[in-house]
Amino acid sequence: MRPAVIDFDTLPILGQGGEATVHQLDATRVVRRFKPGATWASVQERTRFLAQVAAGSQHLPFETPLVLEERQTAEDVYTIEKRIAGQSMQDALQTVAGDERKRLIEHYLETAVLIGEIAVTFDQFGEIGLDDGLTAANWHEWLVARARRSLRGTPLADFDVESVVAQLPVCERGRFVHLDYFPGNAMAVGDRVTAVIDFGYACIMGDGRLAAIWAAAYLTLGRTEDIAQPDMDVAQAWLDERGLMQWYDPAVQWLALYWMMVPPSDDPACRAWCVSVLGAIN
Protein backbone atom coordinates (compact mmCIF):
# COMPACT_ATOMS: atom_id res chain seq x y z
CA MET A 1 0.00 0.00 0.00
CA ARG A 2 1.45 3.37 -0.97
CA PRO A 3 1.82 5.99 1.76
CA ALA A 4 -0.83 8.71 1.78
CA VAL A 5 1.73 11.41 2.54
CA ILE A 6 5.48 11.50 2.01
CA ASP A 7 7.45 13.24 4.76
CA PHE A 8 10.43 14.51 2.79
CA ASP A 9 12.19 15.69 5.93
CA THR A 10 12.67 12.07 6.99
CA LEU A 11 14.01 10.80 3.66
CA PRO A 12 17.76 10.78 2.88
CA ILE A 13 18.81 13.07 0.04
CA LEU A 14 20.63 11.26 -2.77
CA GLY A 15 21.22 14.27 -4.96
CA GLN A 16 19.92 17.64 -6.05
CA GLY A 17 20.12 19.88 -9.07
CA GLY A 18 18.48 22.85 -10.66
CA GLU A 19 15.18 21.09 -11.26
CA ALA A 20 14.63 18.74 -8.34
CA THR A 21 15.89 17.01 -5.22
CA VAL A 22 16.06 13.22 -5.22
CA HIS A 23 15.32 11.32 -2.00
CA GLN A 24 15.66 7.65 -1.17
CA LEU A 25 12.22 6.13 -0.60
CA ASP A 26 13.26 2.51 -0.07
CA ALA A 27 15.69 -0.08 -1.46
CA THR A 28 14.16 -0.07 -4.94
CA ARG A 29 12.60 3.40 -5.33
CA VAL A 30 13.49 7.09 -5.15
CA VAL A 31 11.33 10.21 -4.96
CA ARG A 32 12.09 13.15 -7.23
CA ARG A 33 10.69 16.30 -5.62
CA PHE A 34 10.50 19.10 -8.16
CA LYS A 35 11.43 22.60 -7.13
CA PRO A 36 8.90 25.46 -7.03
CA GLY A 37 7.89 26.53 -10.51
CA ALA A 38 7.57 23.03 -11.94
CA THR A 39 4.21 22.47 -13.61
CA TRP A 40 2.14 19.31 -13.63
CA ALA A 41 2.18 19.40 -17.44
CA SER A 42 5.99 19.53 -17.56
CA VAL A 43 6.26 16.62 -15.13
CA GLN A 44 3.87 14.57 -17.25
CA GLU A 45 5.86 15.41 -20.37
CA ARG A 46 9.04 14.28 -18.62
CA THR A 47 7.39 10.98 -17.69
CA ARG A 48 6.34 10.37 -21.30
CA PHE A 49 9.82 11.24 -22.52
CA LEU A 50 11.55 8.91 -20.06
CA ALA A 51 9.23 6.11 -21.14
CA GLN A 52 10.35 6.70 -24.74
CA VAL A 53 13.99 6.68 -23.67
CA ALA A 54 13.56 3.45 -21.71
CA ALA A 55 11.80 1.75 -24.63
CA GLY A 56 14.37 3.03 -27.11
CA SER A 57 17.39 1.93 -25.08
CA GLN A 58 16.45 -1.66 -24.24
CA HIS A 59 19.10 -2.93 -26.67
CA LEU A 60 21.86 -0.89 -25.01
CA PRO A 61 24.12 -2.00 -22.13
CA PHE A 62 23.04 0.62 -19.61
CA GLU A 63 19.95 1.44 -17.59
CA THR A 64 17.92 4.62 -17.84
CA PRO A 65 15.42 6.14 -15.36
CA LEU A 66 11.80 5.02 -15.28
CA VAL A 67 8.91 6.83 -13.58
CA LEU A 68 6.59 4.54 -11.61
CA GLU A 69 4.13 7.15 -10.32
CA GLU A 70 3.39 10.86 -10.60
CA ARG A 71 1.89 12.73 -7.68
CA GLN A 72 0.72 16.26 -6.97
CA THR A 73 -0.29 17.81 -3.66
CA ALA A 74 -1.08 21.35 -2.60
CA GLU A 75 2.60 21.82 -1.71
CA ASP A 76 4.54 19.53 -4.03
CA VAL A 77 4.88 17.94 -7.43
CA TYR A 78 6.93 14.74 -7.37
CA THR A 79 7.50 11.40 -9.01
CA ILE A 80 8.36 7.98 -7.65
CA GLU A 81 10.98 6.31 -9.80
CA LYS A 82 12.98 3.13 -10.07
CA ARG A 83 16.20 3.30 -8.08
CA ILE A 84 19.25 2.58 -10.21
CA ALA A 85 22.08 0.53 -8.74
CA GLY A 86 25.72 1.61 -8.54
CA GLN A 87 27.44 4.82 -7.53
CA SER A 88 27.88 7.92 -9.58
CA MET A 89 31.05 8.02 -11.62
CA GLN A 90 31.78 11.33 -9.91
CA ASP A 91 31.94 9.51 -6.57
CA ALA A 92 33.89 6.62 -8.08
CA LEU A 93 36.58 9.02 -9.29
CA GLN A 94 37.41 9.78 -5.67
CA THR A 95 38.89 6.31 -5.21
CA VAL A 96 39.39 4.45 -8.49
CA ALA A 97 42.96 4.59 -9.78
CA GLY A 98 45.47 3.19 -12.26
CA ASP A 99 44.33 1.09 -15.22
CA GLU A 100 40.84 0.75 -13.78
CA ARG A 101 40.47 4.54 -13.79
CA LYS A 102 41.67 4.72 -17.41
CA ARG A 103 39.17 2.02 -18.46
CA LEU A 104 36.34 3.81 -16.64
CA ILE A 105 37.05 7.09 -18.42
CA GLU A 106 37.23 5.35 -21.79
CA HIS A 107 33.99 3.47 -21.15
CA TYR A 108 32.33 6.73 -20.11
CA LEU A 109 33.25 8.19 -23.51
CA GLU A 110 32.13 5.04 -25.34
CA THR A 111 28.79 5.30 -23.56
CA ALA A 112 28.41 8.90 -24.75
CA VAL A 113 28.49 7.52 -28.29
CA LEU A 114 26.10 4.66 -27.47
CA ILE A 115 23.55 7.14 -26.13
CA GLY A 116 23.19 8.21 -29.75
CA GLU A 117 21.62 4.82 -30.49
CA ILE A 118 18.60 5.49 -28.26
CA ALA A 119 15.70 5.19 -30.65
CA VAL A 120 13.31 8.14 -30.46
CA THR A 121 11.19 9.62 -33.22
CA PHE A 122 11.99 13.26 -33.85
CA ASP A 123 12.35 14.86 -37.28
CA GLN A 124 14.06 18.13 -36.31
CA PHE A 125 17.31 19.22 -34.72
CA GLY A 126 17.11 20.53 -31.20
CA GLU A 127 15.56 19.96 -27.81
CA ILE A 128 13.37 16.94 -27.18
CA GLY A 129 11.21 16.04 -24.21
CA LEU A 130 10.19 19.66 -23.64
CA ASP A 131 6.86 21.27 -24.41
CA ASP A 132 8.64 24.56 -25.22
CA GLY A 133 11.85 23.16 -26.73
CA LEU A 134 13.72 25.08 -29.41
CA THR A 135 14.02 23.19 -32.72
CA ALA A 136 15.16 23.86 -36.28
CA ALA A 137 15.44 22.06 -39.60
CA ASN A 138 19.12 23.02 -39.91
CA TRP A 139 21.76 21.95 -37.37
CA HIS A 140 23.93 25.06 -37.54
CA GLU A 141 20.87 27.33 -37.36
CA TRP A 142 19.77 25.54 -34.19
CA LEU A 143 23.23 25.81 -32.62
CA VAL A 144 23.24 29.57 -33.20
CA ALA A 145 19.67 30.08 -31.98
CA ARG A 146 20.16 27.96 -28.85
CA ALA A 147 23.39 29.70 -27.90
CA ARG A 148 21.77 33.10 -28.35
CA ARG A 149 18.88 32.08 -26.10
CA SER A 150 21.36 31.05 -23.40
CA LEU A 151 23.20 34.36 -23.65
CA ARG A 152 20.15 36.59 -23.19
CA GLY A 153 20.58 38.87 -20.23
CA THR A 154 24.21 37.84 -19.65
CA PRO A 155 27.38 39.94 -20.03
CA LEU A 156 28.13 37.94 -23.21
CA ALA A 157 24.85 38.72 -24.98
CA ASP A 158 26.76 40.17 -27.99
CA PHE A 159 29.20 37.26 -28.27
CA ASP A 160 30.06 36.22 -31.86
CA VAL A 161 28.23 32.89 -31.78
CA GLU A 162 28.34 32.41 -35.54
CA SER A 163 32.15 32.26 -35.62
CA VAL A 164 32.12 29.34 -33.18
CA VAL A 165 29.36 27.43 -34.97
CA ALA A 166 31.03 27.90 -38.37
CA GLN A 167 33.94 25.74 -37.14
CA LEU A 168 31.68 22.77 -36.36
CA PRO A 169 30.86 20.09 -38.93
CA VAL A 170 27.68 20.06 -40.97
CA CYS A 171 25.18 17.45 -39.84
CA GLU A 172 22.40 16.11 -42.05
CA ARG A 173 20.81 13.61 -39.67
CA GLY A 174 20.47 14.00 -35.93
CA ARG A 175 21.19 11.45 -33.23
CA PHE A 176 20.16 11.43 -29.59
CA VAL A 177 22.59 13.52 -27.50
CA HIS A 178 22.52 13.96 -23.72
CA LEU A 179 24.07 17.40 -23.23
CA ASP A 180 24.21 16.95 -19.46
CA TYR A 181 26.07 13.64 -19.64
CA PHE A 182 28.84 14.17 -17.11
CA PRO A 183 30.30 11.93 -14.36
CA GLY A 184 27.53 12.92 -11.94
CA ASN A 185 24.91 11.57 -14.37
CA ALA A 186 26.72 8.31 -15.12
CA MET A 187 26.37 5.41 -12.69
CA ALA A 188 29.37 3.11 -12.46
CA VAL A 189 30.26 -0.33 -11.17
CA GLY A 190 33.98 -1.00 -11.28
CA ASP A 191 35.35 0.26 -14.59
CA ARG A 192 32.00 0.24 -16.40
CA VAL A 193 29.22 2.78 -16.80
CA THR A 194 26.06 0.82 -16.02
CA ALA A 195 23.40 3.53 -16.14
CA VAL A 196 22.80 7.03 -17.47
CA ILE A 197 20.47 9.33 -15.55
CA ASP A 198 18.93 12.82 -15.57
CA PHE A 199 17.44 12.84 -19.04
CA GLY A 200 15.91 16.25 -18.44
CA TYR A 201 15.89 19.53 -20.33
CA ALA A 202 19.32 18.97 -21.87
CA CYS A 203 18.55 16.21 -24.39
CA ILE A 204 18.69 17.06 -28.08
CA MET A 205 18.74 15.58 -31.53
CA GLY A 206 22.10 16.69 -32.87
CA ASP A 207 25.49 15.69 -34.24
CA GLY A 208 26.50 12.42 -32.61
CA ARG A 209 30.15 13.08 -33.42
CA LEU A 210 30.16 15.90 -30.89
CA ALA A 211 28.60 13.87 -28.07
CA ALA A 212 31.90 12.33 -26.93
CA ILE A 213 33.64 15.72 -27.16
CA TRP A 214 31.03 17.27 -24.90
CA ALA A 215 31.34 14.33 -22.50
CA ALA A 216 35.12 14.83 -22.48
CA ALA A 217 34.67 18.55 -21.83
CA TYR A 218 33.24 17.68 -18.43
CA LEU A 219 36.51 15.91 -17.61
CA THR A 220 38.37 19.18 -17.36
CA LEU A 221 39.81 21.05 -14.43
CA GLY A 222 37.18 23.21 -12.80
CA ARG A 223 34.26 21.29 -14.30
CA THR A 224 34.31 17.96 -12.40
CA GLU A 225 35.84 17.36 -8.98
CA ASP A 226 38.67 14.82 -8.60
CA ILE A 227 39.81 15.28 -12.21
CA ALA A 228 43.52 15.62 -12.89
CA GLN A 229 45.60 16.31 -15.99
CA PRO A 230 46.25 12.58 -16.65
CA ASP A 231 42.48 12.03 -16.86
CA MET A 232 42.18 14.80 -19.41
CA ASP A 233 45.05 13.24 -21.36
CA VAL A 234 43.24 9.88 -21.47
CA ALA A 235 40.07 11.53 -22.76
CA GLN A 236 41.82 13.58 -25.40
CA ALA A 237 43.86 10.58 -26.59
CA TRP A 238 40.58 8.65 -26.97
CA LEU A 239 39.12 11.51 -29.03
CA ASP A 240 42.27 11.85 -31.11
CA GLU A 241 42.24 8.16 -32.05
CA ARG A 242 38.76 8.69 -33.49
CA GLY A 243 39.56 11.89 -35.39
CA LEU A 244 37.44 14.07 -33.12
CA MET A 245 40.05 16.46 -31.72
CA GLN A 246 39.74 18.61 -34.86
CA TRP A 247 36.41 19.91 -33.48
CA TYR A 248 37.33 19.93 -29.79
CA ASP A 249 37.85 23.67 -29.25
CA PRO A 250 34.69 24.97 -31.01
CA ALA A 251 32.58 22.15 -29.54
CA VAL A 252 33.67 22.99 -26.00
CA GLN A 253 33.16 26.69 -26.69
CA TRP A 254 29.60 26.04 -27.86
CA LEU A 255 28.94 23.94 -24.73
CA ALA A 256 30.08 26.87 -22.63
CA LEU A 257 27.73 29.16 -24.56
CA TYR A 258 24.88 26.72 -23.90
CA TRP A 259 25.49 26.57 -20.15
CA MET A 260 25.61 30.35 -19.84
CA MET A 261 21.85 30.00 -19.32
CA VAL A 262 22.53 28.86 -15.72
CA PRO A 263 22.53 31.90 -13.41
CA PRO A 264 25.75 32.28 -11.40
CA SER A 265 23.65 32.33 -8.24
CA ASP A 266 22.46 28.78 -9.02
CA ASP A 267 25.84 27.32 -9.99
CA PRO A 268 28.81 29.70 -9.64
CA ALA A 269 31.29 26.98 -10.67
CA CYS A 270 29.43 26.41 -13.94
CA ARG A 271 29.39 30.12 -14.77
CA ALA A 272 33.08 30.45 -13.89
CA TRP A 273 33.92 27.55 -16.22
CA CYS A 274 31.88 29.06 -19.06
CA VAL A 275 33.50 32.46 -18.72
CA SER A 276 36.99 30.93 -18.57
CA VAL A 277 36.39 28.93 -21.77
CA LEU A 278 34.85 31.82 -23.68
CA GLY A 279 37.29 34.40 -22.34
CA ALA A 280 40.14 32.39 -23.80
CA ILE A 281 38.98 33.12 -27.37
CA ASN A 282 38.38 36.85 -26.97
CATH domain class name of the largest domain: Alpha Beta
How many helices? The count is: 9
How much is the radius of gyration in Å? 19 Å
- Could you estimate the helical fraction of the residues in percent? 25-40%
- Indicate the CATH topology of the largest domain: Aminoglycoside 3'-phosphotransferase, Chain: A, domain 2
Content-based structural category: alpha+beta
Number of domains: 2
How far is the N terminus from the C terminus? 60 Å
Query: Strand content of the residues, in percent?
Result: 15-25%
- Summarize the biggest pleated sheet: 5 strands, antiparallel
SSE topology sketch:
Elements lengths: L12 E4 L3 E5 L4 E6 L5 H17 L10 E6 L4 E6 L4 E2 H4 L5 H17 L10 E3 L7 E2 L2 H13 L9 H5 L9 E4 L7 E4 L2 E5 L6 E4 L4 H7 L11 H13 L6 H12 L8 H12 L3
Antiparallel strand pairs: 1-2, 2-3, 3-5, 4-5, 6-10, 7-8, 7-12, 9-12, 10-11
Helix pairs in contact: 3-6, 3-7, 4-8, 8-9
